[in-house]
Write a structure and sequence with these properties.
CATH class: Alpha Beta
Largest sheet: 7 strands, parallel
Helix content: 40-55%
CATH architecture: 3-Layer(aba) Sandwich
Radius of gyration: 19 Å
CATH superfamily: NAD(P)-binding Rossmann-like Domain
Number of strands: 7
Order of helices and strands: HEHEHEHEHEHEHHHE
Strand order of the largest sheet: 3-2-1-4-5-6-7
Length: 270
Amino acid sequence: MAGSTEQGKQAALRAGRFAGRRIVVTGGSRGLGEAVVRLLLAEGARVATCARTAESLDGLRHSLGAGDELLTQPLDVAAPELLERFVDSAAASFGGLDGAVACAGGARGRGITDATAEDWATTWALNAGHFARLTASATRHLRASEGGSIVVVSSISGWKPGPQAQYGASKAAQLHMVSSLARELGPDGIRVNAVSPGSMLIPGKRWDRLRQEDPAAYQRFAAEFPGRELVRPDEVADVIAFLLSDQARGVTGVNLPVDRGQNAPTPQGY
């Protein structure tokens, strides 16, 4: 019996950590979300991902040369019912679900005296609301699979003060939800965890543009990191994959910062 168990473990290792697993990832067409999708597919998972534009998803599929192991759908995760339908469709296509990653997110508005009620509502819907809806939708399918793992991409802004307040508040809400949902869903065999990236160096994005356009300002910001290097998306993706995997079967209700020891989350220094 022990020999057959060991053979099974070795077969799983050869096939990849996620061989046979079915995972939904929101916001998977670029940046961190793309890194997560690529890693999961490389390790044997079937992945369903969504993003705002069909063009970005088509580019992802083309770059991967993906087949039926990747499902894509353009949608706004804050739009009523679209996210839920996407999750249900992915589960129907795959014959169930084993995990979900809430990677999509964002912010709208400026400082407290300028931000409108709509700015607050939009930011909340993109972050806390989207995570809650993804969790609710995925949970129905994870229960049918007798458990699974849910990971939300939060931020160090969830507890390290920085502008804008509406973004930090929505990220802090995600972290509280993780603690609560881990207890609520634990009896169903569902683990819920958060990963909080620091400022990531993504080609063409904010910090990469700063590095190219104002090297001195970039170096001042890099001083917020003990090693003077910003976080890479693949470093965060590795931790997300760990939390989705059986290697983390004893981990739930936690927030894992992946920030290279970053101090302030923005160049403003607070």
